[in-house]
Amino acid sequence: MNFERTLIITGGAGFIGSHVVRLFVNKYPNYKIINVDKLTYAGNLANLKDIEDRPNYRFVRMDICDFDGILKLMQEEKVDGIIHLAAESHVDRSIKDPFTFAQTNVMGTLSLLQAAKICWDGNWEGKRFYHISTDEVYGALEMTHPEGVEPPFTTKASSGEHHLAYGEKFFTEDLKYQPHSPYSAAKASSDHFVRAFHDTYGLPTVVTNCSNNYGPYQFPEKLIPLFINNIRHRKPLPVYGKGENVRDWLYVEDHARAIDLIFHEGKVGETYNIGGFNEWKNIDIIKVLIRTTDRLLGREEGEDMNLITYVTDRAGHDLRYAIDSSKLQKELGWEPSLQFEEGIEKTVRWYLDNQAWLDNVTSGDYQKYYEQMYAGR
Ligand code: NAD
Ligand code: DAU
Prior knowledge:
There is one protein chain. This protein is α/β, with parallel strands linked by helices. The chain has one domain: Rossmann fold. The protein contains 12 helices and 14 strands. The protein has a 7-stranded parallel beta sheet with strand order 3-2-1-4-5-8-12, sandwiched between helices. The two termini are 21 Å apart. It binds nicotinamide-adenine-dinucleotide (NAD) and 2'deoxy-thymidine-5'-diphospho-alpha-D-glucose (DAU). Residues 10-11, 13-17, 37-40, 42-43, 63-65, 85-89, 104, 108, 132, 134, 187, 210, 212-213, 219 line the site of nicotinamide-adenine-dinucleotide (NAD). Nicotinamide-adenine-dinucleotide binds at residues 10-11, 13-17, 37-40, 42-43, 63-65, 85-89, 104, 108, 132, 134, 187, 210, 212-213, 219.
């Protein structure tokens, strides 16, 4: 079969990657989509069950740090685009094991960049290296507010629009990088390498920095799926510190749509911030999760509030993240499709309807899926 384009999507068996792979496989039957994933604890092929037999999809189990393997694959498949999501992604794990984060996030990205540079060999026409990064590279924002006005209050983003916020400043693309955790330091370093390959060799790169994602298929070590699962089992909900930290939440399919748009229409060498101007204090989200989960389980709404358990704060816990996505909205016309209340309802419902997925992931059984699926092939 002849394909118009052949793309590698790295980390396609993970949370965001699986949504991006699904979107591209469904929307572009004329593209060959090669999902390159090492299948770490965070990679789960069951996330892609619905598209795994499509003629325009191929899965390759490979570590992105395997430079020779990546180069060979790119040459054999005549790859003309890379959408790079593979990473170690959990801040708490990075505090315990920073080496793995430096290895995958920095060396893995470098291996892909170098392979792309050699494979494309200065023939940049129609080629694209798209690196997916995070808002955490910008560090933490303060909770400043106008005198006499308590947050959340309305403030003006650079687009001129007013948004509910916990501080007057937002992350804009021109901000200096100030990462605090080993995770964000490794992501920041990988971003610098991507830009260095653009500036030094002319590699056609684009970088995006997105806020916190939520939605189906997120590994239940992250706040939202972990807490839904704990509420379901009536286990304690470990709230770090006072639960006052603010995160800016985006439904994962809106991120995937932004990636599609930017991959095709974003300007080479540019950076775009992605976020929905949707700031929430952790404790307020947790209360929404409890009320929604209780209601959908037929319990009395709010009866599980007593599961809230304040625990020692995360080391170096960033206070507030808030993305200004005006550039993306103005230049490429992207905007989030879902209101948060709608997205949270959908998300809680998905985890409750997919208890087998959650049980499989929490028991570790999902890691046998690959061996069973590919046995004898
Ligand atoms: P995830 O942890 O759910 O998935 C990561 C995937 O990468 C897994 O499938 C894993 O098997 C794979 N992987 C890890 N190391 C690998 C290696 N060495 N070689 C090949 N594959 C490897 O992550 P996620 O939350 O989906 O995040 C995806 C990307 O988006 C990451 O780059 C992350 O930094 C970025 N990001 C995430 C968020 C968020 O809220 N989750 C927000 C902004 C940006
Ligand atoms: O901002 C984008 C980032 O969002 C991504 O780059 C990361 O890959 C992704 O993991 C996420 O990072 P956070 O650290 O913000 O996500 P997490 O779900 O781990 O935590 C969200 C908030 O909830 C944070 O303030 C810490 C707090 N928390 C988290 C857990 C797991 C708790 O209070 N208790 C918990 O048990």
